[in-house]
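::Amino acid chain::
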Amino acid sequence: MSTGAVIRGLFGCALAFVAVWLIAILYWSSTGAAPTTGQIFGYLLIVPLLLIGGFLLIRMLIRRRKAGDGTQSPAAADGSTVATMADAAQDRVLYVLATAVLTRAGNSGDAIAQSLAQPDRPSLHPILRDQMGLPVFAAPVDDIDLELVRASMAGFLPRSPGLVDAQLRALALLEPVAEELLYAALPPPVEPSEAPLADSGTLHPHAMHHSRSSRAAAPAALAPLLSIRLLLPATWPDPVRRACVGWLSDKAAAIGFAGDSFSVGIEPVTGAADAWRVIDRVCHAESRDGTHESGDHLLLAAYSLVDEMAVDRLDATRALLVSGNPEGLIPGEAAAGVLLSATPQPHDAETPALRLHGIVHGPAGQGRSAGHSLGELMEHTLGIAEVQPKQVGAVFSDADHRPSRSIEIAVAITACLPEIDPFEQGRHLGIACGETGAAATLAVLSAAAAQARADNAPVMVASVADREVRYAALVSPVPNPELSAATAAETA
């Protein structure tokens, strides 16, 4: 039991005694009665104890009834299709085909994975100030070309509203990420066979016509639909989000996608948990036969708080890191994307395919139990993916500077993966990049994928950014069938 709970319990007991004593004394004074020793003992001691005992009994009965009814946690009551520890009986695998990212910690998954080994913590921003006029910590990305994005978005935006600085910065980060992944998702061109016909001059024209028809390549099948989901802050106005759809659709067409080979949808998000919900929704959709969502899935996210308006909003709600508020946030910015598919890809020795599996979620623990609750989620993830703790090579998370998050993830790693040093092999994006919203989820996945590929070992991914819900997943290399067969032959 926590110290706060003990203090609240003692205060409630004292309040019950004081209330009963006050009522009894006022009653005796108003009636002029002279209470006996038994009445004094009964009213001033027995009655308060009976009240306290009755209250505790009622609370225990209510808790038992809730437990028997299987009451959902707030995180699970939103109607989303996120797999919980109770219903995630099978592993729903997605294959990670490509990733791209642009953050303060690096512009690739490999760069971020290496940078987070010794993270460079954010410093005071030269311009941004809090309500007291003092500089604030911020994690901006340097050398962003805002004018290029402003010009490319001009044709899709109405005159009003325009783009504020935070939106411009987010889209400027997103542009190179989106281009890289659109090129990665572009299907290779299929050229018809132009093989010459042997002895064509000796054939009758009618026979030559049929010979060419039989040797011509069959019409290429249509490429699977690329579903693009653009994860943008829910606070952005609808005209801006619609303009982003047009902007991204125009970019895909310019890269080479046919108009009917892709679709662009908007996912309004408020944080990292919403990005996990989108990913898990893709997992569930792909696990159903005959779904219309088959094909490749490109998830893109952009976020920025490096803006005076954003800092003022954080400060006004006491969500900004300032003196006296160590649990406040550091404004950051990032853009990231992942290309996912339910279809396994041919094995490539140079860039082996990766799997994302074992996604589970549960309510955030409170106080000292928070780390152990997250550790249980991570253990359940390992069980779903059928991976032993000793096989995991590293842990990546969106934890930041906040003491509550740092302690929680460290305790979880120690409890679930005792062979991993939480300080040496724990890589936490938020420490270097601050608050980056839904982009943090995709950036962490990018870094974890790069580490899993480099080490050829599974990597645990955990999310502690949200107040109410925690997520855990696993990224692992797809086994090389040729190497597995050779190893089995040597063993035999």
